[in-house]
Structures are given as C-alpha cells and as structure tokens.
Design a protein that fits this description.
Strand order of the largest sheet: 1-3-6-5
CATH superfamily: Immunoglobulins
Number of domains: 1
CATH class: Mainly Beta
Structural class: alpha+beta
Largest sheet: 4 strands, antiparallel
CATH architecture: Sandwich
Shape: elongated
C-alpha cells in the first residue's frame, strides 16, 4: 500500500511540475510545431532598437517593430514577451509567407519606473535556435 501511495505521489508531483512550466523558459523545440521547426526561416527587422527619449513616469508608450520574413519558408511566431511585466508585446498569430511583412507592437508602462530604462522583447519563432531580440530605451522622469 505504501508503495502505491509513493508511486502516485511521484506521478502527481511530475504532473504538477510539468504543467506549471513557464512558457518563457520552455525550449524552443517544445513551443514550435514540428512542421515549422523542421523548416526554419529567417526574420529581418527594420530596426532592432528604439529610443523613446524622455517620458514622464506613468506614461504608456508604444512602438511598432516592423519585420519581414526574409526566408523561403513560412514564419511562425509562437510567443513574444518582455523581460519584465511593464513591457507587453503583441505579435501576429498566423504564419507569415516568405517575403511578407508584419509588425510587433510593444507597449511600455513606465508606472513606478525612474531613470534610464533598457528593456528587451524576446520573439520565439521558427528561425532556428537563434533568439530574436528587439529592445528599447527610455529616460523616465518624475512628473
């Protein structure tokens, strides 16, 4: 009886740990469907960095990062996230054909921030094992 309880406890623990995994820390291979993972492409951003300049604390500012699928296979962005909760990206959910373009809109909420801010946005796509990163800076001033 004790062996059964121990066995079931171990299975329950494994299920809890694997179901609660943070998608930001998951391996790319786990996020991208095999049909896309096995057919990588390339993404080319018009610019990978942006400077908002001086903004007031509490401002919400937005920037659009434009990109092109510069490869020969469809581009699938499966996730995009900021390095902190103050940075929220919105990305295309449908595949982008070779040669077509798209945008990633990034909103930065400067509430509670002060001074020079440097934030990154990670873009997970079928572009091989390379991380796709765009970033921005802002000088946040108290009102």
């Amino acid at each position: 009886m004790k062996k059964h309880v121990l066995f079931l406890s171990i299975i329950a623990l494994v299920l809890i740990v694997t179901s609660c995994r943070d998608p930001k820390k998951a391996k790319i291979e786990e996020l991208i469907p095999a049909s896309y993972l096995n057919n990588p492409t390339t993404i080319t951003f018009e610019d990978t960095s942006f400077n908002f300049g001086n903004i007031k604390q509490g401002d919400k500012v937005k920037h659009t990062f434009k990109f092109t699928n510069s490869g020969k296979k469809p581009l699938l962005i499966v996730n995009s996230f900021g390095t902190c909760g103050c940075t929220v990206p919105d990305y295309p959910k449908n595949p982008i054909k070779p040669g077509d373009s798209g945008v990633i809109n990034v909103v930065f909420n400067s509430e509670g921030k002060e001074g020079l801010q440097h934030k990154r946005v990670i873009v997970i796509a079928n572009t091989g094992k390379n991380k796709n990163v765009v970033n921005f800076t802002a000088m946040v001033n108290k009102p």
